[in-house]
């Protein structure tokens, strides 16, 4: 709640933010959050509890950022004033920093509703500090194995986040592990499901990354992806099939859209307008790095972020065949490069440069899978400069496939927002 007791913490946090930006222009976004969390540990929970229409938390292994942006876009299109963490700052210090950007000196934010992406681990740690009107969980996958070790650990963390839902729990109905959480939910919390139809599920090369799935589990009342082709998708809900344009190619983005629509339907009730919601998503730009197309140094470049084997496979599946210019970068965020070996990356065809701190390991995988690797250079800034200086491609556009660490370094080197 807003309170004069937060004034010193907010002032100190803003001073820390100013100092961090002077020291590192464009960076240091987590510093004020670290400072405020240390000196006023109750600030974050207090502000999260202050929104008139409540808090919505989005978490899970993959798809959090895009799903959050889609949900915010739909709610805003319906006239709601939303506070969110648009920079995908989804850990505790990042969340606090995001709050400081909008909060008054007393810790009040002028918005109807908060929709926040939360990292699984940090969300679990924060869970005692907040209650949520709704919690949306995207999936449980093998992800960040250096942090989370196994899926059961992730499920436990998501369970703590889910336990804070007061009104609804929006779940991926195709995820066998999330079904365990659904079994624990008691009234008055309702369960809303999203997922993909059997035809879509069976047609995805490499699978969706889920274990022991049964797509029928979504049920007749769910929000279901029935067809996907490139950036076009068909999604069924309310006894009708609706068409939507996705911000990037692939069935995984269609699943994100289904998740956002399911959550919006639950939150808005009778005020939900399918036409407004679908138009809002169709006009949305990609979240940075995730199928985003940018113009840098006069060149069009597509950024493709891969964070775990499932996202790597799904994104590679959507690449155009015969791309003339691809740079692949693996960085320090990948603790064990063998993590990605199950991915069939052969569709890349030819990698002009493989870069990042794990460049040699990535190049070895690509070579074993028949990808032509022209050059290996761990120096990412130098590799980016040479890649962008290449003549225009003869097929497609310049494409950079990267993991999270080189994604951030790439954007920083190119002067793009991070």
TrEMBL record:
The keyword ATP-binding applies. It is an enzyme of class 6 (ligase). Its EC number is 6.3.5.13. It comes from the Bacteria. Pathway: Cell wall biogenesis; peptidoglycan biosynthesis. Keywords: ATP-binding, Cell shape, Cell wall biogenesis/degradation, Ligase, Metal-binding, Nucleotide-binding, Peptidoglycan synthesis. Residues 305-386 form the Lipid II isoglutaminyl synthase (glutamine-hydrolyzing) subunit MurT C-terminal domain. It catalyses: beta-D-GlcNAc-(1->4)-Mur2Ac(oyl-L-Ala-gamma-D-O-P-Glu-L-Lys-D-Ala-D-Ala)-di-trans,octa-cis-undecaprenyl diphosphate + NH4(+) = beta-D-GlcNAc-(1->4)-Mur2Ac(oyl-L-Ala-D-isoglutaminyl-L-Lys-D-Ala-D-Ala)-di-trans,octa-cis-undecaprenyl diphosphate + phosphate + H(+); beta-D-GlcNAc-(1->4)-Mur2Ac(oyl-L-Ala-gamma-D-Glu-L-Lys-D-Ala-D-Ala)-di-trans,octa-cis-undecaprenyl diphosphate + ATP = beta-D-GlcNAc-(1->4)-Mur2Ac(oyl-L-Ala-gamma-D-O-P-Glu-L-Lys-D-Ala-D-Ala)-di-trans,octa-cis-undecaprenyl diphosphate + ADP; beta-D-GlcNAc-(1->4)-Mur2Ac(oyl-L-Ala-gamma-D-Glu-L-Lys-D-Ala-D-Ala)-di-trans,octa-cis-undecaprenyl diphosphate + L-glutamine + ATP + H2O = beta-D-GlcNAc-(1->4)-Mur2Ac(oyl-L-Ala-D-isoglutaminyl-L-Lys-D-Ala-D-Ala)-di-trans,octa-cis-undecaprenyl diphosphate + L-glutamate + ADP + phosphate + H(+). The keyword Cell wall biogenesis/degradation applies. SUPFAM superfamilies: MurD-like peptide ligases, catalytic domain (SSF53623). Pfam families: Mur_ligase_M, MurT_C. GO terms for molecular function: acid-amino acid ligase activity; ATP binding; carbon-nitrogen ligase activity on lipid II; metal ion binding. Residues 58-264 form the Mur ligase central domain. One of its GO terms (biological process) is cell wall organization. Belongs to the MurCDEF family. MurT subfamily. The lipid II isoglutaminyl synthase complex catalyzes the formation of alpha-D-isoglutamine in the cell wall lipid II stem peptide. The MurT subunit catalyzes the ATP-dependent amidation of D-glutamate residue of lipid II, converting it to an isoglutamine residue. Forms a heterodimer with GatD. This is Lipid II isoglutaminyl synthase (glutamine-hydrolyzing) subunit MurT.
């Amino acid at each position: 709640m807003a309170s004069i007791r937060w004034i010193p913490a907010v002032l100190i946090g803003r001073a820390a933010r100013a100092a961090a930006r002077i020291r590192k222009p464009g960076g240091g976004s987590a510093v004020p959050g670290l400072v405020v969390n240390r000196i006023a540990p109750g600030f974050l929970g207090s502000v999260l509890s202050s929104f008139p229409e409540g808090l919505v938390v989005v978490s899970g292994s993959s798809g959090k950022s895009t799903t959050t942006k889609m949900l915010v876009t739909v709610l805003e299109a319906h006239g709601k004033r939303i506070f969110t963490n648009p920079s995908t700052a989804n850990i505790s210090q990042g969340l606090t920093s995001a709050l400081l950007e909008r909060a008054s000196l007393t810790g009040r934010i002028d918005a109807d509703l908060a929709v926040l992406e939360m990292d699984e681990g940090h969300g679990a740690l924060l869970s005692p500090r907040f209650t949520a009107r709704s919690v949306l969980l995207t999936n449980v996958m093998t992800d960040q194995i250096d942090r989370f070790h196994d899926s059961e650990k992730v499920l436990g963390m998501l369970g703590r986040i889910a336990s804070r839902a007061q009104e609804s729990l929006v779940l991926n109905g195709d995820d066998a592990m999330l079904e365990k959480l659904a079994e624990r939910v008691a009234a008055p919390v309702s369960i809303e499901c999203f997922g993909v139809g059997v035809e879509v599920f069976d047609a995805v090369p490499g699978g969706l990354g889920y274990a022991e799935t049964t797509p029928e589990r979504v049920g007749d009342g769910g929000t279901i992806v029935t067809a996907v082709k490139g950036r076009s998708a068909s999604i069924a809900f309310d006894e009708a099939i609706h068409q939507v344009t996705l911000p990037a190619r692939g069935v995984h983005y269609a699943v994100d859209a289904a998740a956002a629509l399911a959550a919006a339907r639950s939150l808005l009730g009778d005020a939900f307008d399918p036409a407004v919601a679908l138009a809002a998503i169709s006009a949305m730009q990609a979240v940075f790095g995730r199928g985003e197309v940018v113009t840098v140094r006069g060149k069009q470049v597509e950024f493709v972020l891969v964070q775990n084997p499932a996202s790597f496979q799904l994104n590679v599946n959507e690449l155009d065949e015969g791309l003339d210019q691809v740079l692949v970068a693996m960085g320090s965020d990948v603790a064990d490069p063998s993590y990605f070996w199950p991915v069939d990356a052969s569709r890349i065809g030819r990698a002009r440069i493989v870069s990042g701190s794990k460049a040699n390991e990535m190049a070895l995988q690509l070579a074993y899978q028949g990808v032509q690797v022209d050059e290996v250079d761990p120096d990412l800034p130098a590799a980016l400069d040479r890649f962008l200086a290449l003549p225009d491609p003869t097929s497609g556009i310049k494409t950079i496939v990267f993991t999270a660490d080189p994604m951030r370094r790439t954007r920083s080197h190119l002067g793009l927002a991070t």
